[in-house]
Amino acid sequence: MPTIPLPIDEEDQSRLADWLEINALLENDGSASFDELESNLKTSKPSNIAEELSIAAYNEIRMRFTYLKESYPFELSGRLVKRKIINNWTYIFCLLISYIGPDTGARALKIWKVNQVTHIFEKICTRAAESYFSDNKCRAEAIQFGAPRSSWPRRIRPFVNALKYMKEHLLEGDVRGTSREMAKDGGLDVLAWRHFPDKMPGKIILLGQCSTSKYNYTDKLSEIESFLNNDYRIEHQRLKCFFLPHSLFSDNSTWGQINRSAGIPFDRCRISYYAADWDGAEIKDIFDKIKLKLVKYRKSL
Q1: Is CATH 3.30.310 the right assignment for the domain spanning 116-274?
Q2: Over the stretch 232-260, which tens digit does the pLDDT of each residue have?
Q3: Fewer Cβ atoms within 10 A, N terminus or C terminus of the chain?
Q4: DSSP secondary structure of 206-222
Q5: Contact status, residue 34 vs residue 80, Cβ threshold 8 Å
């Protein structure tokens, strides 16, 4: 029997697919059933609607499997979603924060430490951006720019110093004289680029913003433009991207809004495809505790 209740939005096929994956993670036999999903849906919906939603969730799982192939940490077996030996910790982490939430409070079951989710998510997004820009001839470079930059040398953590550090590596653009000294990161979380062998100015530069919320992200959509207007000048060749840990296959509205306002969308599958090699070191040690809390406090979801 599944150990967690259905999501609040029972008609969101992405959330229903997440529900199946979470249950496959938690169940002792490592599987979750579409029949069980349909049975749960029938407690609040007519049979035909429950069946349609179950089919929609199946199609969502199948799209994820088709996209990620062998790096998808689950498999379809008849009417079951089965977990595999975890081979993509990026996907698992994004699934957890998408379903549980990124907060440290009650809704998150007090799983995460302060700023832990943001730090890890920006780290794997930086890895994804670097991989996306790389090819067999040239490896891209990338910086996790989001505050507080705790892994950076202390002297270059302040915002203006970080901008100067950025210029030293980009070899392009310039720190604006109006740069906001008290800003944390100016809205820039991920920076990636690929030099030509001559390292001359004139290359594509990726500037990324990250959000772990599916519903309260709209205020972040314009932050890269604000960063470019106020803090750092890049005249041309700039590529804006927006990273979310949620699956957006079935959410054309969100996908379109991000694509129009914030640049290229990187959802869970895109991030997991390009950052599949993350070893999950930061969550492996607490993964069993997370599963236990999900079972014990299932009503909090």
Answers
A1: no
A2: 999 888 999 999 999 998 888 889 999 99
A3: N
A4: EEEEE---SSS-GGGTT
A5: yes
